[in-house]
Amino acid sequence: MSATITERSYDYTKSRYVTSAVAKLVSDNNGRVVFPMGGKDRYYSTLGIILRKGSDRLSSEFYSYAYGQGGRNPQQSYFFTDRSIYRPGQTIYFKGILLTLDTDRHYKIMPDQDTTVELYDYNNQKVGSARLRSNRYGTVSGSFTAPSGVLTGQMTIRNGSGSAVIRVEEYKRPRFEAGFEPVKGNYRLGERISVKGFARSYAGAPVSDAAVKYTVVRRVWFMYRWWGWYYWHYNGKETVMKKGEIKTDAGGAFTVDFEALPDKGIPRRNSRPFTTRCALT
Fold first, then answer.
1. CA-CA distance, 23 to 17, in Å (whole number)?
2. How would you class 77 by CB atoms within 10 Å of its CB: exposed for 0-12, middle for 13-18, buried for 19 or more?
3. What is the pLDDT of residue 43?
């Protein structure tokens, strides 16, 4: 399969966008096309790619934010933890896999490799360290104790080529959960929507006659494309449409009704989808 890479940029001397060819490439046996960086460590541009195979043709345009091989760490580590949130004093169990790029720019595992894994607290202070050696599968495992007497919040497990983020918080183990059922059907602006929710214990029993506080928020959403900066002053705008408190029934269920009102501050010619969420508080 052949591929033609083009670059789209603004020519200030001509006051218009121009398109120029960057490279003509052929995919390898795996269907992969490697884009030449032209000696750059980083490449920022709006690029187009045209793929051809026989009489078939596929074209696409995208904004590229790419790093070249020269600025890329050939080693990469991925870490996994048994949980995402811990209380101070609890044990944090983690596992990691060590990878490296070979000459064909494919990742492969790194067996029998020494690495130092460290735990950093919310203030980026080191509070734990472990010297480990990977097994024949390129993995390492260990544990830390979640620190006490420090500022709680987001903490990081990392070595020289990868990291994982966890949270350490003072919290009580929840005894029940609350949520919403998937909304069925399609709705238009101005229509009334009913969202059904539930509250139940982790044992599966319904939580009846419980107070539920809810908030309905409207958020404006625009699809980002290379010209999407034009709508930045609208995107992400949020408005509280309704707040209230209700009770769950005998089966632990409740219903939130609201009207899908549009944002009249946005001109109709710029009309775009809205997303609405209900949050329990």
1. 19
2. buried
3. 54
Distances (CA, A) of 86 to 94, 143, 161, 166: 13, 13, 24, 8
Domain 176-280: give its CATH code: 2.60.40
CATH architecture assignment, domain 75-168: Sandwich (2.60)
Q: How confident is the model at residue 107 (pLDDT cuts 50, 70, 90)?
A: confident
Domain residue ranges in the chain: 2-69, 75-168, 176-280
Classify residue 134 by burial, with Cβ atoms within 10 Å: 0-12, 13-18, 19+: buried
Spatial contact of 220 and 266, defined as CB atoms under 8 Å apart: yes
The first and second tokens of residue 1, run together, are 């399969």
8 Å CB contact between 100 and 78: no
Phi (first) and psi of residue 238, to 5 degrees: -120, 145
What span, in angstroms and rounded, lies between the C-alpha atoms of 206 and 278?
20
Tens digits of per-residue pLDDT, 4-58?
A: 767 766 677 777 777 777 677 787 877 777 766 655 555 556 667 777 788 887 7
Q: How far is CA 175 from CA 44, 99, 150, 200, 252, in A?
A: 49, 41, 27, 9, 14
Residue 39 confidence (pLDDT): 54
| Side chain identity, residue 138 | G
Matching fold, domains 75-168 and 176-280: yes
For residue 194, the one-letter residue type is: S
